[in-house]
């Protein structure tokens, strides 16, 4: 899953202990590699990093997502199929945000996340601080709701990563078989949320 899903799965200010630390860790995890880098953070932020890793592992191993990525590989995305799946699922989550998170409109949720991340940006790895600037400036989280936002996100990745030029075609490939991916996401998302809820409520070893 991509940025929007990770942030949403961090919980809520009212119901989640150490919520802000979980958000910071979940976001920072994009650039935290290895045990030493993990342990440089306070324990509650480490929980957010571990949550991010759990979400990624759960997603990559899920049979529905494997079905999604197989279809995208056949569409020509090759090893980048997982990236298109992640961003494409964020598009569907943003597009139907009121269905999946009726407690708060997407624009309000997005601005709340930007504010929190910006206030604590000094805790983020340097490259994420720079990325956060552009994320806020161009409102990526809300932009995901539109096909143009999906295209911009994947086009940007294709330009930043020399070997990933094929990602420029990712939005078209995803949208070409949209009903199939909508069905995949509708099946997968409740299971991901349930997996995260179980992790948090049982204080599993990953935490």
From TrEMBL:
Listed name of the protein: DUF479 domain-containing protein
InterPro entries reported in the protein's UniProt record: ACP_PD
Record carries keyword Hydrolase: yes
Entry-linked Pfam families: ACP_PD
Domain of life: Bacteria
PANTHER family (alphabetical): ACYL CARRIER PROTEIN PHOSPHODIESTERASE (PTHR38764:SF1)
Keywords tagged on the record: Hydrolase, Lipid biosynthesis, Lipid metabolism
């Amino acid at each position: 899953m991509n940025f929007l899903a990770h942030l949403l799965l961090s919980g809520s200010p009212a119901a989640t202990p150490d919520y802000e630390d979980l958000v910071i860790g979940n976001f920072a995890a994009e650039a935290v590699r290895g045990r030493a880098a993990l342990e440089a953070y306070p324990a509650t932020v480490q929980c957010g990093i571990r949550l991010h890793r759990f979400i990624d592992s759960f997603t990559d191993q899920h049979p529905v997502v494997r079905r999604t990525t197989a279809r995208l590989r056949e569409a020509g995305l090759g090893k980048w199929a997982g990236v298109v799946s992640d961003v494409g699922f964020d598009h569907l989550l943003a597009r139907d945000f009121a269905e999946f998170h009726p407690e708060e409109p997407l624009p309000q949720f997005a601005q709340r996340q930007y504010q929190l991340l910006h206030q604590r940006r000094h805790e983020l790895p340097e490259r994420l601080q720079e990325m956060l600037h552009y994320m806020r400036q161009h409102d990526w989280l809300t932009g995901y709701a539109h096909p143009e936002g999906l295209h911009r996100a994947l086009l940007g990745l294709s330009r930043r990563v020399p070997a990933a030029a094929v990602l420029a075609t990712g939005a078209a490939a995803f949208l070409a078989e949209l009903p199939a991916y909508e069905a995949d996401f509708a099946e997968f998302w409740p299971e991901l949320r349930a997996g995260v809820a179980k992790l948090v409520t049982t204080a599993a070893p990953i935490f």
